[in-house]
Amino acid sequence: MKKYLSLSVTIIGLLILTAAFVNKPLQKLSVPPTDSKLCHSIDDPIMAFASFANNKEFRDAHALPRPFKPRAKQLKGKMVDFKTPGAEKGHAYLVKAPKKSNQYLFMFHEWWGLNEYVKDEAAFWAEQLGDVNVLAIDLYDGKVATTREDAGKLMQGVDSDRAEDIIKGAISYAGQGAKLASIGWCFGGGWSLQSAIIARHSMEACVMYYGMPIQDEELLETKLETNVLGIFAKQDRWITPEVVKEFEENMKKAGKELTVAMYDADHAFANPSSPKYDEEAAKDAREKVRRYLELVF
Length: 297
Hints:
Elements: H1 2-22, H2 45-50, H3 56-61, E1 78-82, E2 90-95, E3 103-108, H4 116-129, E4 133-137, H5 148-156, H6 160-174, E5 179-185, H7 187-199, E6 203-209, H8 217-223, E7 228-233, H9 241-253, E8 258-263, H10 279-294
Parallel strand pairs: 3-4, 3-5, 5-6, 6-7, 7-8
Antiparallel strand pairs: 1-2, 2-4
């Protein structure tokens, strides 16, 4: 009898301890800001977008890239390395302007990485803009995904501090006094806006295609020194029209200029290698981007 009584007391004690642990509130974790880096907390836009990779619906929405017909007719580029504030070098695909130029368009790839489509896109925009060097920056350090699962892992594996060092290295590579603009899609759309924050007054234009926007009004007010062209999709289930509206409101409060072009299309509609490609919407968006960038270049 004593044996059973002792066992009962032990079980009751364990149940009380378990209940106390389960009901204990969890503390919110964050990464403290530093003077030399952007503040990367658990609710920052880069980490928020990367977290989508845990969602099977998000992964499945990104159909595997299909063969595409290259659009660049003349210009070709080459891979280049450059120094960064860290120990490792940065890498990018550079398409040089026909004439010597200190004008640079920084290009940021989608979650697949710096693949052949992005390289062709770099050459295409170099042809469109004339005396502008296009630097397609590699945030995956040479890795390219061929499956959704690998793309998700690569996107989530990006270290924000390393990516910031790569962008700072690219700015130094362009040279003092260079005129900069940025463009990016999806994962790269968010980094296009982040690069404008990092480059400050050196960045004179910023294009983001369906990327996660920065919603921190104070950061936008104090660090962003260019206007922004945002290309978004009404059918996007992640960068939703509600997310875009909040971005518009925060940019207005911050006293910054934002032009939004919203298309009745889906995420990745501007990528010719994507089954989601919408030629009519993509063509109209490209024309808006071209006119916007020509105001700078």
